[in-house]
Amino acid sequence: MLENEKMRFSKPAMRILENEHRYLTYLMDEWHAIVLWFEHRMLDLEEGRKQLEKLRMQIIDFMVPLKKHTEKEEEHFFSLLGTYIGFEQGPLVGIQEEHREIEGYIGHFLYQTEGDLSLLTLDEIQEAAKNAGEAFEVLTVHFIKEETVLFPMAEQQINRNDLTRLCDKLNTLIS
Q1: Which of 123, 135, 151, 165 has the fewest Cβ atoms nearer than 10 Å?
Q2: Is the pLDDT reported for residue 160 higher than 70?
């Protein structure tokens, strides 16, 4: 976390999730720089293939902490918050759907880039990079929604004992 960037949440459980968002955003920014390269400068097919391979490796590495974070949210945070606000409608439904959407974009990118990258055309490379860019955008908005809707809701509505138990469950590494 940047020195001048303050934590927004007071409850330790929400701070854990907020810190994970900061770490994941840091990792995302690294591979998003390659996506932006594809959008603005990619002209050479060979260099495009090299950058695509680098992007693929960074996204594969990113998937480990993202998966751990998502599992923690769904198994512990969402299941607890849902007992307070309901599971059938409202913000939890949309947020969980975004988890599937993110998995879809990243999964499609990985599918498009498996195998021999030297066989991909310029259009195929750009299409794959576009899916990585879509994953980045959905993730960015997703984190904002969680931090502006779900986390404040949890801090206000979940009782202290439940938040303490939640903190104990969330207090695991994602990297």
Answers
A1: 123
A2: yes
